[in-house]
Sequence to fold (123 residues):
Amino acid sequence: MDALEHLRRLCLALPEVTERLSHGEPTWFVRGKKTFVTFANQHHDDRVAFWCAAGPDVQQTLVAQAPDHYFRPPYVGHRGWLGVYLDVEVDWDVVADLVEDAYRVIAPKTLVAQLDASSCRPD
Fold:
């Protein structure tokens, strides 16, 4: 499975998530409105990555710890969003956690509760 398909599977497994193109890239939305993850296929550079919502200080911490895996994305980095390179060796369990955390940052409390009540993560 390629990186985009793997990312797509993780995102679409979450409650009330839809996918559509935004700015020419596959992007995942909660209830069709709020973006929580966007794919970045050589968007502003020659790297394949995704950008995701992140909690306070997550971006700063991960970029400082592993700049070969994480970065501050353009446009949304100033809001704390995290960039994750997919053209390096990827730990998909970590990516799954980051995607779920991004969802939790954006989704309303009712959907987070629904997520907590079920196991939505694909194998």
User: Anything to note?
Assistant: The beta strands are 17-22, 25-30, 34-41, 48-52, 70-71, 82-85. The CA atoms of residues 10 and 45 lie 25 Å apart.
